[in-house]
Structure formats: structure tokens, C-alpha cells
Write a structure and sequence with these properties.
The chain has 2 domains: about 160 residues, Alpha-Beta Complex (Quinone Oxidoreductase, Chain A, domain 1), CATH 3.90.180; about 140 residues, Quinone Oxidoreductase, Chain A, domain 1, CATH 3.90.180.10. Helix content is about 30%, strand content about 25%. The protein has 11 helices and 15 strands. The strands form 3 sheets. Strands 3, 4, 5, 6, 7, 14 and 15 form a 7-stranded mixed beta sheet that branches. Strands 10-9-8-11-12-13 form a 6-stranded parallel beta sheet, sandwiched between helices. It has a two-stranded antiparallel ribbon with strand order 1-2. Helix 6 packs parallel to helix 7.
Length: about 325
């Protein structure tokens, strides 16, 4: 049998369970993956609670990211063979291909061979965070050398990925975090400066750091009331990319600043990239080249065993992590029996 993560009602981490289901067979254009590590994201937490953009269908699987070995391939699949070490790009709804389990099906177009120097834990943490950051900073905003990007929730996996990508292209990364508790870790992670939003005047600090000009790019997963300061801190002609809604409170928007500063405010999800084959290939190539060159290095906060999947979700929701939370899936000789 084959253990997968499921839940039968929305709620907290306690609704998750490991359930035995038959090992599936890949259909045409599908790959059967024996997982070795799973990546955790805020998307899974929101999906589990019924607060995501798509609703679970019960009993519901869960999970966007995994790394492991190809077990079998369906018809029409080329370039992949049993035994290949691969990882999964989030390019599908969790309602169709939940990947948090021991043996999971994934569409072949979402399976990539990651750089060989990565561990399975690192490979499971790569694609969601780096493609999200690449999409917002590079594919859409065209971040350039010498420009300044503000990165709220900078200690998240996507925040750290954005810091690394900004430095990779020669831009200036200003990390925003609620208190100064993570200041040292963010500077060590590559941030050029850190602003503690609950302790400092965000607008004044951005003006100080940019010589009064403001930031050319804001890459924000939070929204809510704090977005007002980011609009004020943005430079004329700046772009504000909103890629999450961690704060669901109403956002007071200074429409005058948006108008007269000529700002672009735009929502973004990585699925704009991963559902477009051409943009997906460019994103994967960009990230892979950065990983191989050492410009991009996955930061793992903590690894949990598969049996402790609910504890991993609790740790995610506690909000104290710096980097990616991963779940390890131990090899099992009888997992496919």
C-alpha cells in the first residue's frame, strides 16, 4: 500500500492524517514518483483551512512540491526513466495532483531533473519559492542592476529567494520583517538592509536608504494596512507586485499616490509562469543556472519526518521559520507492495 496525506474536513493541522491507498498507475503524459522529500508552503495551510483560491474535494489530498525518484512513466513521456532523480514544479491544482504522499502521480511537464548537487530535501524546496520570486522580479518587473526592491515577509522561503535573485542581477534587496529578531539572519542571507516594520518608520528608512528616491520595486505577500506605507515608499514609476494576502484586513490605498507617481500595482501567482510552457522553460533555466553557479542556495529552516506532517504544518503556521520547511519520506522496501 501507499501512504498519502489526506483530510476530510477543513481546519487546523489536526485534520491531517496518513491514509493507505493503492499505488496508482501513470496515465499518458503522467509520471509516478516515489517521493523522498516534500516542500511545505503557505498555500497548503490555506487550502487545508478552506481559505485558498480553490476548494478541497473530500477526501482531499494536499501538496504542491516533492522530490524523489521516477518509478514509472505513462505513454507519451520522453526524457524521463525509472530511477531518475527529479523534483516537481507546481504547475497544477492540488485538487488534481496532490503530491504529499509516498507514491504520487504528477503531469510529466511538471517534472524536472534538478542539479545533481542538491539533496532531495533541497530539491523539494526549490521551485515554488524561486519561480515565484523569478516571476515577480524578473519575468514581470524586469528588475535591473542598481534598482532597489522592498521584500516584506523576507524570512519566508520566497522572501529569501527574492533576496538571492535580486543580488544575482545586481539589485539592492531591502528585507522587511516585523521585529529586529531576524535582522542578523536576513543580513547573513544576503539582504543589503533590514527594516523592522513594527519598530521603525518604514517610509523614512526607505527614503534614507535610497537617497530620497524610493524603491523601484515592491514584492509583497502581505497586503493589508501595511501596503499603504509601501505605496508611499515606492519611487515614481515603481511597480508593486502583490503575490499573497497574509493579512486579510482591508488595505487603505492612496489612489492619489498611485495616480500621480504613475505606479503599477499588480497581482501575481506563479501559475502565470508554470502553466505557460515557454515561460516555464525560461524560469526553470534561470533557476537551474543560478543553482549551478551558486547564486541561488535553498535555505531550509527545519525538516520533519513524514509521520509528523501535522507538526510540520503547526511549525509553518507559528510563523517563526527562516527559510523552507520540508518533510522527509524514508525509503521503504514494501511501500509499493
Amino acid at each position: 500500500m501507499n501512504r498519502v496525506v489526506r483530510f476530510h474536513r477543513t481546519g487546523g493541522p489536526e485534520v491531517l492524517s496518513l491514509e493507505d491507498v493503492p499505488v496508482p498507475a501513470p496515465a499518458p503524459d503522467e509520471v509516478l514518483l516515489r517521493t523522498r522529500a516534500l516542500g511545505l508552503n503557505r498555500a497548503e495551510s490555506m487550502f487545508r483551512r478552506g481559505q485558498y483560491g480553490i476548494d478541497p474535494v473530500f477526501p482531499s489530498g494536499i501538496g504542491y512540491e516533492a522530490a524523489g525518484e521516477v518509478e514509472a512513466v505513462g505513454d507519451n513521456v520522453t526524457g524521463l526513466a525509472p530511477g531518475d532523480a527529479v523534483s516537481v514544479v507546481p504547475a497544477f491544482p492540488m485538487t488534481e495532483y496532490p503530491v504529499h504522499g509516498e507514491h504520487v502521480l504528477v503531469p510529466a511537464r511538471a517534472v524536472v531533473a534538478h542539479p545533481e548537487h542538491l539533496s532531495f530535501e533541497e530539491a523539494a524546496s526549490v521551485w515554488m519559492m524561486y519561480i515565484t520570486a523569478y516571476g515577480g522580479l524578473i519575468d514581470f518587473a524586469r528588475l535591473k542592476e542598481g534598482e532597489t526592491v522592498l521584500i516584506p515577509a523576507a524570512s519566508s522561503s520566497v522572501g529569501l529567494a527574492a533576496i538571492q535573485i535580486a543580488r544575482m542581477v545586481g539589485a539592492r534587496a531591502v528585507a522587511l520583517t516585523r521585529t529586529g529578531a531576524k535582522r542578523r539572519q536576513l543580513l547573513e542571507a544576503g539582504a543589503d538592509a533590514v527594516i523592522a516594520t513594527a519598530e521603525e518608520d518604514v517610509v523614512a528608512r526607505v527614503r534614507e536608504l535610497t537617497g530620497g528616491k524610493g524603491a523601484e520595486l515592491v514584492f509583497d505577500p502581505v497586503g493589508g494596512p501595511a501596503l499603504a506605507d509601501l505605496v508611499t515608499a515606492a519611487a515614481p514609476g515603481a511597480t508593486i507586485v502583490l503575490y499573497g494576502l497574509l493579512d486579510p484586513a482591508p488595505t487603505p490605498l492612496d489612489t492619489g499616490a498611485v495616480l500621480f507617481k504613475g505606479l503599477t500595482l499588480r497581482g501575481f501567482t506563479l501559475f502565470e509562469i508554470t502553466t505557460d510552457d515557454t515561460r516555464l522553460r525560461k524560469a526553470v533555466d534561470f533557476v537551474r543556472e543560478g543553482l549551478v553557479a551558486g547564486h541561488l542556495t535553498p535555505v531550509i529552516d527545519r525538516a520533519f519526518p513524514f509521520d509528523a506532517i501535522a507538526d510540520a504544518h503547526r511549525h509553518l503556521e507559528a510563523g517563526g521559520q527562516v527559510g523552507k520547511i520540508v518533510v522527509t519520506v524514508a525509503p521503504s522496501d514494501d511501500a509499493a507492495s
